[in-house]
Amino acid sequence: MVGAKVDILIDETTRQRNHELIDGIFIPEEANLIKTIPLSRQEAEDRLFWPFTHNGPYTSKSGYCFLKSEEEAEINDEQMEQDRTLWRGIWSLQVPNKIKNMIWRACRNSLPTKDNLQRRTRIYNAVCDQCKLVPESAIHVLWSYTEMDVVWEDVSIWSHRRTNNFIDFKKLLSCLIFNQHHLELFSVMAWSAWTQRK
Questions:
Q1: Residue 11 pairs with which residues in a beta bridge?
Q2: What percent of the chain has pLDDT over 70?
Q3: 42-46, 110-114, 129-133, 175-179: which has the minimum mean pLDDT?
Q4: Which of 164, 162, 181 is nearest to 172 (CA)?
Q5: What whole-number distance in Å separates Cα of residue 139 and Cα of residue 143?
Q6: Are 81 and 98 in contact (CB under 8 A)?
Q7: How many CB atoms lie within 10 A of CB 143?
Q8: Mean pLDDT for the chain?
């Protein structure tokens, strides 16, 4: 059977499968699957068919697109799992619901910061009113703004604050999610800073 091709499983005169041969070669599950594959009524030469193009031939472009989509799907699966862990961590905090809600909204980038308001309305200038240097985002308002030194520098667990430049609030929280006590303390302090600012 070495070097045998699929056509040995088909009777050329009747264009039917040779069920005895299929049952003799394959395990029952595989044999049953093979028997369900539809056969062409016409005798045609087999050809390779690439399922990621409209007409079947492989192209470098279609191969590249396929690999990129596989890579993106893998990244998306990983990101979804990280997000699930983060959301579970936020909603399981032992803090009032209003604090959980504010933290969740900050992670989802939906707090009414000037940065968000500029994207959603016709506000012209998103620069922070206090520092007048950078756009007012959740990460700026609650973490990196220099006036927040008063809040965060007194707590030794965040003494590294100036060495970590987080691009958004969600990334910051993802680093804190593995210690529930630190996350709860952080959430209460961030909520307090947010309510005093607004």
A1: 16
A2: 96
A3: 42-46
A4: 164
A5: 5
A6: no
A7: 24
A8: 85
Residue with tokens 């045998």: 4
Q: What is the 3-state secondary structure (H, E, C) of the chain?
A: CCCCCHHHHEECCCCEECHHHHHHHCCHHHHHHHHHCCCCCCCCCCCCCCCCCCCCCCCHHHHHHHHHHHHHHHHHHHHHHHHHHHHHHHHCCCCCHHHHHHHHHHHCCCCCCHHHHHHHCCCCCCECCCCCCCECCHHHHHHHCHHHHHHHCCCHHHCCHHHCCCCCHHHHHHHHCCCHHHHHHHHHHHHHHHHHHC
The two tokens of residue 142 are 């609650």
In the block, which residue shows the tokens 């210690």? 179
CA distance 140 to 117: 15
Of the candidates 166, 155, 164, the one whose C-alpha atom is nearest the C-alpha of residue 193 is: 155
Tell me the pLDDT tens digit for each residue of 65-114.
888 888 887 777 777 888 888 999 999 999 999 999 999 999 998 999 98
Tracing tokens 């929280």 back to the chain, one arrives at 173
